[in-house]
Design a protein that fits this description.
Length: about 425
């Protein structure tokens, strides 16, 4: 069968629709929500919830053939994660902070999809297609355990009398944690997925993820971070004090396994979501580069393609270099998501796409501000905002340094203990 290098029709259709959403609904509000941190964009949330329901669902867990109603009949290859990546890139071109307010499961749903049982997936993921927009979030980072998840101190102890897990600890930098846990009148009941240890002496082998329903007693959002970028998205600190969770809400085995199967299943979440985070970075970088090219064209600067590099102006070389960087990052996203769709191990490719996109997004947005000069640095345009928004791509979902370690371990065949 010949290899086609064109985006499938469901992807191009989604990109066309979301381009209009990005241009008409997100971009005009981008500066407002940047200046009104944590204000919830209700119009956007409610519109997107209705639109996503009409397209087949709003959970980050993909359908194998995408979201089209006739997907199963068309006998096409699986494109679930590729479709999501294209959607997130288009929305992030509009405003990456508002994208983070997209109703649906987010990382919380991805964890349930990766590590949960079939019954858990039905129970928790089906709610995202309900009447109200609903959110879910991942709670893993702690003050003393950033990139080193083996140092997590949050503890889950089984109360055998009530058959409930009792969880104590505090999580920080939870993206979307407030909307996922706090039951607003306009929101459905969301949940957070909390990483905790069932046996601290077992280190990583004792790590498990637990679904904690919104409104659970003993769980409180104690702080919302004030941030440099993605300011409309809430980033929460969450405290858990004797929070009781049903026994069946554990994702994975309730016993410590020597082969760390439960931990590995939970970590597989990141193999699916890191390329999606990379896609958002590509969207931000594309927004900045498109704007720069528009401003250059307005001022009579034409980019001449196909001539020797030494005959190009400095700005032409910069623009062409940025275009190359952007396209290479996007190709890495496509490869990683294609592998996820086809159930191929993609830990290496997922981390590589995340590293590349974090680098490219930061460099392109900085270069755009540099070329635009005072106008790029001023708040008259969104260029300076894109530069602030860009940096988070290199930080969350595993920092650039950690993902480089993952890449090195995969290529060289070292374990985490051997290469740190």
């Amino acid at each position: 069968m010949p290899i086609e290098f064109e985006a499938p029709k469901p992807i191009t259709n989604a990109q066309f629709v979301l381009k209009t959403v990005a241009e008409e609904m997100m971009r005009p509000k981008s500066r407002y929500f940047d200046e009104h941190e944590h204000e919830i964009p209700w119009d956007y949330i409610e519109f997107m919830h209705s639109a996503m329901k009409a397209m087949g669902g709003s959970s980050l867990a993909p359908k194998e053939n995408g979201n089209g109603k006739d997907a199963e009949k068309e006998k096409r290859p699986p494109i679930g994660y590729q479709l999501i990546a294209a959607q997130l890139e288009a929305l992030s071109w509009g405003d990456v902070g508002m994208y983070h307010c997209l109703p649906g499961g987010g990382l919380g749903a991805a964890a349930v999809h990766s590590a949960g049982t079939a019954d858990q997936r039905v129970k928790f993921l089906s709610r995202f297609n309900g009447d109200k927009p609903t959110f879910a979030a991942m709670c893993i980072t702690e003050a003393g355990a950033g990139s080193d998840n083996s140092a997590i101190r949050t503890r889950a102890v089984l109360d055998e009398k009530t058959n409930e897990w009792v969880i104590n600890g505090e999580k920080i930098f939870v993206t979307g944690g407030d909307k996922s846990f706090t039951e607003y009148e306009k929101l459905g009941r969301g949940f957070i997925v909390v990483w905790a240890s069932i046996d601290p002496s077992a280190k990583r082998a004792g790590m498990r993820a637990f679904v904690v329903e919104g409104g659970t007693k003993g769980v409180e959002v104690v702080k919302l971070e004030k941030k440099m970028g993605i300011r409309v998205s809430d980033t929460a600190a969450i405290s858990l004090v004797d929070a009781r969770v049903p026994f069946e809400n554990i994702l994975g085995s309730p016993t410590v396994e020597k082969n760390m199967a439960g931990f590995k299943k939970a970590m597989a979440t990141f193999d699916a979501t890191r390329p999606l985070v990379a896609a958002t970075g590509v969207g931000v970088a594309r927004a900045a580069l498109d704007f720069l090219k528009e401003k250059l064209a307005e001022n009579g600067v034409k980019i001449r393609y196909g001539i020797p590099r030494q005959k190009l102006s400095s700005i032409e070389r910069d623009v062409i270099d940025m275009e190359i960087m952007l396209k290479s990052a996007w190709l890495m996203v496509i490869k990683a998501t294609w592998m996820a769709d086809n159930k191929k191990p993609n830990a290496l490719e997922a981390s590589m796409s995340k590293v590349k996109a974090g680098d490219v997004c930061t460099k392109i947005t900085q270069k755009v501000v540099e070329i635009l000069g005072p106008l790029g640095y001023s708040r008259e345009f969104l260029a300076e905002k894109w530069m602030r928004d860009a940096k988070i791509t290199d930080i969350y979902e595993g920092t650039g340094q950690i993902n480089r370690l993952v890449v090195a371990r995969q290529i060289l065949g070292y374990s985490g203990a051997e290469l740190r």
